[in-house]
Amino acid sequence: MFRFANPQYLYLLFIVVVIWGVFLYGEYKRRKNLKKFGKISVIEPLMPEVSKYRPSLKFFLQQLALILLIFVIARPQMGSKLETVKKEGVEIEIVLDVSNSMMSKDITPTRLDRAKMILSKLVDELDNDKIGLVVFAGDAYTQLPITSDFVSAKMFLSTINTNMVPTQGTSIGRAIDLAANSFTQDDSADKAIIVITDAENHEDDAVGAATEAAKRGIRVDVIGVGTSKGAPIPIGNSSNNFIKDREGNVVITKLNEQLGQEVAKAGNGIYVSADNSNSALRAIVAEVRKMKGSDIESKVYSDYDEQYQVLALLAFILLLVDSWILNGKSKLTQRINFFTDK
Q: What is residue 188's DSSP assignment?
């Protein structure tokens, strides 16, 4: 695997382009001024000590050396080997509610957006752990198999929306069951399911699912998203059109804190309410830190070998040629004209 340790220095290559532009313009002006004294083919024999090749060659060598030096300070590196690294971490399955009620705006900007913000910050807090993602509404689906690739995890988070699950509803129990069966077979690491939902469960036995997970040594934490006052559920991206019941009344969705607390209690976890602060995140991170980790294997390029030495040597040789031979200051070369036209 090839990389530059300091890629920001590659922007200096734009300076090289500017210098080339200035040089070419200078050459154009020089030849234009020479034409004022007569034909160049007539003038050149009158200046036998002036080489028309030396300035261009010196400029080329100096610019090539400059380009090489820019690559040197950018520090080209090559991954020397792929190594299996063992780090102590825990396994966490995120269970995220993507039902239509999560688009309500009693939590800014919406319940779902607030949940995604919490998850993004939670991923940033994880280090050597593994994370998986299950989304649910009327059914549950594995969105991201458990992994230590946090870059992919954050990428999946950015794409989550309420259209991911075709069946509407809130099947918290089914989602907990799916998450519990998605962990690895490693029994030495603590495992946790973090459910993020407004807890409007209408489909199944969420408390029973949390109880079964706890029997398997998997704790279940719940983050409640929403308010007890509630808010209407927008239709699509509309801010004035809301879901209505059969009688034509606007449906108000409210956070069911009681169910959230019951699920967390049954799963030997904690319940926290997500507001516009980071208190829920801090509480969950504190619980994760208490969990017992195990050796988790991951593949990484363990060493990066510096590759700048050859480039630095070439730049030094080019500058040496420029100063030693082309300037003709060496006793060995001062009698030699490298640029004779004969």
A: S
Which residues have C-beta within 8 Å of that of residue 119, sequence separation ≥ 6? 94, 96, 157, 196
Q: Which is nearest to 198 in space by CA: 114, 124, 281, 284? A: 114
Q: According to DSSP H, which parts of the chain are helical? A: 13-34, 40-43, 54-74, 111-125, 150-159, 172-180, 206-215, 257-266, 279-290, 308-320
What's the gap between Cα 7 and its chain centre? 16
Residue 278 token pair:
């980071």
Of 59, 61, 75, which Cα lies nearest the Cα of 10?
Answer: 75
* Beta strands 130-136; 218-225: pairing state: unpaired
Question: Judging by DSSP bridges, how do beta strands 130-136 and 140-147 pair with one another?
Answer: antiparallel
pTM > 0.90: no
Decide if pLDDT at 339 tops 70: no
In whole angstroms, what is the distance from residue 42 CA to residue 48 CA?
A: 12
Which residue in 104, 112, 96, 137 sits closest to 243, CA to CA?
A: 104
Q: Which residue do the tokens 């034909």 mark?
A: 39
Separation of alpha carbons 249 and 341, rounded Å: 96
More confident residue, 196 or 166: 196
C-alpha distances (whole Å) from 1 to each of 39, 80, 179 are 57, 8, 34
Comparing 38-52, 181-195, 224-238, 255-269, the range with the smallest average pLDDT is 38-52
* Contact by Cβ (8 Å): 53, 91: no
